């Protein structure tokens, strides 16, 4: 490959390694982000530069948002994202590749054995929970043979929005990394939260954010989870906990840098990481009290059958099975563990579920009021408390692992990368963007920082403004990693492919001088002339690998020249470029 391409920020030659790395910033596959961890935060910065998120501030939904406190702002943002985006993990969206191809691509950067142990696409079984649940089947990977795997690409906000153009989608869509990076950008732009308070956490199978406001907030796909919600025992909270409970946190990304479980260097600021680690650990633990015990029972359905509740009706006592009370919680604002609303919840239980005598073999939940008066700080590390709890559950034959299960419920220890085992990165620079900056100010600030920060430099390749980036990485990604357009036109001859591309909606999903990749053009059935010409080049390169192809781009036109003729498309991108592919 030509090694004379220029680094746009410094003017220095772009090596083969840099061409490949920057091309990964364009593709943004799961594996590419794992190998090049700075790309995770680069996508946040690209979304911050995007005009789409800035337009949210003009939406009526965010009118007067500046008058809300920080938590209310985040709730407002959460509902907007819930309404506008779907969680999407359709592994066919971005096509298929081969394990050996992907492993060979990164062989000089990371040991293939490390990748195989750590990535779900390669049969990841690093944690017993996911091994037991057959992770490949869970994510739909079992339909592929052992060598063929899907590209698991992360979407920019533009690609997320463009899912509305696909059949079967009414909203935008994205997978977990797409949603976490979109959340981070929107928290900064819409809610005015400093980037220093936002941490991105990636495990082998999931991506979440920890936002350092109040007692902490975790973004989980489209939803948010507060400290109280973390311990409420609902199915939603259990799903939100799943990755942090069962997986090693592979990387943490922040405006000051990142830390990765594999690499020996860490660029994140040491004090910042210590602050984050302490607050995350604190977020994931609570004290045992009556309300938390009721939340524990909400999650452990098998234990509900050991309990009953007493309730006064018309001056008489009646008893009801606890599982029927929990069932009534659905759709109600009242909760079993909330003494202030418990009677109101019991009033909502169907009268036919009550009995005039205590249910045989069941424990009255009310007895735990006495227990927690006796042990107001029920420390499960103390043998006395453990013995007392076992006695309270004594007649329940399903409590053999009670103490272990309770300890697991009230305290999760996140498996974070160990900073003490890392050496500080010799050349790293924090991203500095102040809250309240306007979009143009953000872009100008990042342009000044790109020479000193790898996260900022790669952010411009994620952003894909071709006046600010070398073309070679974009072309490499386009020609090598866009199988959807190739598969999509497999039944068409060359003339049919040209006709199909000429019929597409002639507009890009990206504004300004930014470009879509060929599979984005095909998936969303639209593209500027430059994008459609490059899509045609990708298809022809696969069909006619020995044929000479030349891409000639002028401000109003893009022409693909082949050995048999030329195909021209009108363009509104205003770009100049010429390249023999």
Protein architecture, described:
With 581 residues, this protein is of the alpha+beta class. The protein contains 28 helices and 22 strands. The strands form 7 sheets. A 6-stranded antiparallel β-sheet has the order 10-9-8-7-11-12, with helices on both faces. A 4-stranded mixed β-sheet has the order 16-15-14-17. A hairpin with a 2-residue loop joins strand 14 and strand 15. Helix 1 crosses helix 24, helix 3 packs across helix 11 and helix 24 packs across helix 28 (529-543). Residues 1-5 have low confidence and may be disordered.
Short synopsis of the structure:
The chain is α+β, with helices and mostly antiparallel strands. The longest helix is centred in the N-terminal third of the chain and has 15 residues, at 70-84.
Essential attributes:
22 strands, elongated, 581 residues, disordered N terminus, alpha+beta, 3 domains, six-stranded antiparallel beta sheet
Instruction: Output the number of helix runs.
Output: 28
Assembly type of the shown chains? single chain
Sheet bearing the most strands, described? Answer: 6 strands, antiparallel
Kindly report how far apart the N and C termini lie.
Answer: 11 Å
Q: Indicate the low-confidence ranges by residue numbers.
A: 1-5
Radius of gyration: 27 Å
Share of helix, binned: 40-55%
Overall geometric form: elongated
Q: What does the average pLDDT come to? A: 91
Strands across the major sheet, in which order? 10-9-8-7-11-12
**Derived structural class:** alpha+beta
């Amino acid at each position: 490959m030509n090694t004379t391409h220029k680094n746009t920020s410094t003017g220095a030659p772009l090596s083969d390694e840099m061409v490949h790395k920057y091309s990964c910033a364009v593709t943004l596959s799961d594996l590419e982000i794992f190998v090049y961890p700075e790309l995770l935060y680069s996508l946040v910065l690209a979304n911050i530069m995007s005009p789409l998120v800035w337009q949210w501030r003009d939406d009526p939904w965010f009118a007067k948002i500046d008058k809300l406190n920080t938590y209310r702002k985040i709730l407002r943002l959460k509902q907007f994202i819930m309404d506008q985006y779907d969680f999407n993990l359709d592994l066919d969206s971005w096509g298929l590749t081969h394990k050996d191809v992907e492993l060979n691509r990164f062989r000089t950067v990371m040991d293939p054995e490390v990748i195989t142990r750590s990535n779900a696409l390669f049969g990841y079984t690093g944690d017993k929970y996911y091994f037991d649940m057959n992770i490949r089947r869970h994510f739909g990977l079992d339909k592929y043979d052992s060598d063929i795997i899907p590209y698991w690409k992360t979407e920019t906000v533009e690609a997320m929005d463009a899912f509305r153009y696909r059949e079967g989608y009414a909203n935008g869509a994205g997978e977990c990394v797409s949603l976490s990076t979109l959340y981070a950008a929107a928290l900064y732009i819409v809610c005015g939260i400093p980037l220093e308070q936002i941490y991105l956490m990636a495990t082998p199978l999931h991506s979440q954010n920890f936002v350092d406001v109040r007692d902490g907030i975790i973004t989980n796909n489209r939803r948010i989870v507060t400290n109280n919600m973390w311990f409420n025992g609902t199915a939603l909270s259990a799903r939100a906990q799943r990755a942090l409970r069962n997986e090693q946190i592979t990387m943490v990304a922040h405006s000051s840098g990142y830390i990765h479980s594999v690499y020996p260097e860490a660029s994140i600021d040491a004090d910042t990481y210590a602050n984050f680690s302490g607050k995350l650990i604190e977020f994931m633990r609570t004290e045992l009290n009556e309300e938390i015990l009721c939340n524990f029972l909400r999650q452990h359905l098998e234990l509900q059958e050991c309990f009953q509740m007493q309730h006064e009706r018309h001056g008489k006592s009646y008893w009801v099975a606890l599982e029927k009370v929990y069932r009534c919680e659905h759709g109600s604002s009242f909760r079993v563990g909330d003494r202030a609303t418990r009677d109101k919840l019991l009033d909502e239980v169907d009268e036919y579920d009550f009995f005039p005598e205590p249910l045989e073999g069941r424990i009255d939940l009310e007895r735990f009021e006495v227990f927690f008066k006796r042990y107001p700080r029920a420390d499960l590390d103390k043998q006395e408390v453990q013995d007392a709890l076992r006695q309270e559950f004594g007649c329940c034959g399903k409590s053999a692992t009670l103490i272990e299960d309770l300890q697991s419920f009230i305290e999760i220890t996140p498996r974070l990368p160990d900073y003490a085992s890392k050496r500080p990165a010799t050349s790293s620079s924090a991203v500095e963007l102040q809250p309240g900056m306007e979009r143009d100010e953000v872009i100008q600030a990042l342009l000044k920082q790109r020479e000193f920060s790898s996260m900022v430099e790669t952010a411009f390749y994620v952003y894909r403004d071709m006046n600010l980036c070398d073309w070679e990485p974009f072309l490499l990604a386009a020609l090598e990693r866009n199988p959807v357009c190739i598969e999509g036109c497999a039944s068409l001859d060359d003339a049919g492919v040209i006709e199909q591309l000429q019929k597409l909606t002639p507009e890009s999903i990206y504004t300004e001088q930014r470009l879509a990749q060929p599979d984005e053009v095909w998936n969303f059935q639209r593209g500027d002339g430059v994008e459609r010409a490059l899509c045609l080049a990708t298809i022809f390169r696969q069909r006619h690998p020995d044929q000479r192809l030349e891409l000639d781009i002028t401000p109003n036109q893009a022409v693909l020249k082949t050995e048999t003729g030329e195909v021209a498309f009108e363009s509104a991108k205003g770009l100049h470029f010429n390249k023999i592919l």
